[in-house]
Amino acid sequence: LVEKLGVPVGFHSHNNLGLAVSNSIAAIEYGAEYIDVTCRGLGAGAGNTQAEVFAAVIDRMGLKNNLDLYEYMDLAQDVVAPMMLREQYIDSAALTLGYAGVYSSFLLHTYNAAKKFDLNPRDILVELGKRRMVGGQEDMIIDVSHALKYGS
């Protein structure tokens, strides 16, 4: 991708399967020049690539960088953590989103449809993933739920 585009490429990862840092490292190995990171992994679902962990990993790997590991650690612990409404972790919802390969914007709509059609929301999310739905196609949740409940 990097060779074909001829422009700097960046990478943004979510941690719904616990792979944000490793996927970010893989992106660097394949030529990404910019990696989105957040202190404490702050972000949707299970969060994003955690800055302080990423800084530690690339430093241990000997990858050239200008990140100050201790500064990120202090910022995460002393500034970001007290502001967070909840810790970033991989809960059932985040794991299902990652497993299904669908974006977090589907979650609330899926819960509503699951209630309406008396379905397990995980089944709906997995089916949406099988159908390769992407953000902006949330209107398909009702159609998919109807198909799961009544067939076709």
From TrEMBL:
PROSITE patterns: PYR_CT (PS50991). The keyword Amino-acid biosynthesis does not apply. Keywords: Aromatic hydrocarbons catabolism, Manganese. Coiled coil: none annotated. Residues 1-73 form the Pyruvate carboxyltransferase domain. GO terms for molecular function: 2-isopropylmalate synthase activity; oxo-acid-lyase activity. Its EC number is 4.1.3.43. InterPro entries: 2-IPM_HCS-like (IPR050073), Aldolase_TIM (IPR013785), DmpG_comm (IPR012425), PYR_CT (IPR000891). Pfam families: DmpG_comm, HMGL-like. One of its GO terms (biological process) is L-leucine biosynthetic process. The keyword Manganese applies. Belongs to the 4-hydroxy-2-oxovalerate aldolase family. PANTHER family: 2-ISOPROPYLMALATE SYNTHASE 1, CHLOROPLASTIC-RELATED, HOMOCITRATE SYNTHASE-RELATED. This is 4-hydroxy-2-oxohexanoate aldolase. It comes from Salmonella enterica subsp. enterica serovar Napoli.
